[in-house]
Amino acid sequence: MPDYSLRLTRAQHDTLRIHLLPADGCEAVALALCGRRSGDERHVFIIREIVTVPYSACSVRTPDRVTWPTEMVEPLIRKAYGQGQAIVKFHSHRADYRQFSSVDDESDELLFSSVSSLLGDGLPHASVILLPDGTCIGRAVKDGVAFEPMSSICVVGDDIVIWHDTPEVPVPTSGKRNQQVFSKGTIGLLRSLSAAVIGCSGTGSLVVEQLARLGIGRLVLVDPDLVEEKNLNRILNTGKEDVYLGKPKVFALASAIARMGLGQEVLPLPLNLVSQRAVREIAACDVVFGCTDGAEARHALNRLATFYSMPYFDVGIRLDADGSGGISNISGAVHYLQPGGSSLLSREVYQMEQVEAEELRRTHPELYRARRDEGYLRGIDEDRPAVIPVNMFFSSLVVQEFLSRLHPFRNAPNRSYAIVRGNLLEPFLTNEPDGQPCALLARHVGRGDMEPLLERPDL
Prior knowledge:
Strand order of the largest sheet: 13-12-11-14-15-16-17-18
CATH topology of the largest domain: Rossmann fold
Radius of gyration: 23 Å
Number of helices: 12
Shape: elongated
Mean pLDDT: 92
Number of domains: 2
CATH architecture of the largest domain: 3-Layer(aba) Sandwich
Low-confidence stretches: none
Number of strands: 18
Helix content: 25-40%
């Protein structure tokens, strides 16, 4: 059976918590239409739309029981039909009863046997309990009768909250000092997580190094390029032998992680991000790190993270030098993007004309060069200056930002740190809160798998 999990935004969790835990102390019910990242190894339910069942529509509501009209699920079934989407039932346990009861079993069998029969696609659906402290416990329901526990439920907001149901394993000696800082719980959580790193060069190789040594359980590395001699000044764990062998960057980093012997699973993908395999493998991860300056890649990642409701961390650096020792700018920024919030596009990190130009260069290089030479396109910087101390500084900031969301430790709330900017000429850091939701992307939250992927014809 696949590993099942659920993702939802903080706003969605707040909606559920308000409705399912009313002041009268009685149980309540809500339904959700979900996108999904389907798969034989990992299957993720992603909340798209929530429908609350009115209290007045329930024939029975007590502190330990609720009876509701199942015809309320019919509009969601019509929306899900032929779309591969899932139906998820939420209900509350007002006591701290952290498991499904026999009454829950009977109710779920009756509901989901009908849902599965009506949709007829053989795909699983899910049932979730909300407890008084906001914790969620879930299970997948296959063919209406087979229950499988969810390994994790993730709420993506200013903080990243993950409830996971995985066996506790002893912290290895290599993780003891990490545990002294972040506690046994957070270190155990890191060991249960998977992270995708897109771009494995100057900042990406440094992010990979940190995540591996923090003990994150699984790493998916995406970069189509080979190690070149010009990269050796900034890609950690590479050397001239990798250049001579024409080794892909992702394989060089995977070999380095294997030599650490810390027990991580690594999937190196020497692919362009804009490919079906890369998109599906990234979507199966719990968190994504963008370590590329490309506008096309950033736009695709922001879109992917929105469709699959993933926390997305982006790091970018700007170093302006005259080639003769004069330096006019050393700056960088770390962005945290959450589904339904602002995007790198709405934050003006890039413009759509840059996305279009980079896509044209990738797919039709001769046409790109002709249009650039004719003045129809603004040229794209091919080789920007880069030095490893600057990369190290900002790659450390992005990993620290991830840790601060997973294990909040700041004096100020995380909502104040959607963007962290730094300038190293006169060293200082500034931070900014999130802006308005991105008009282009916000409507895609939770869509999950679809044909074509990410609503892109080239996928």
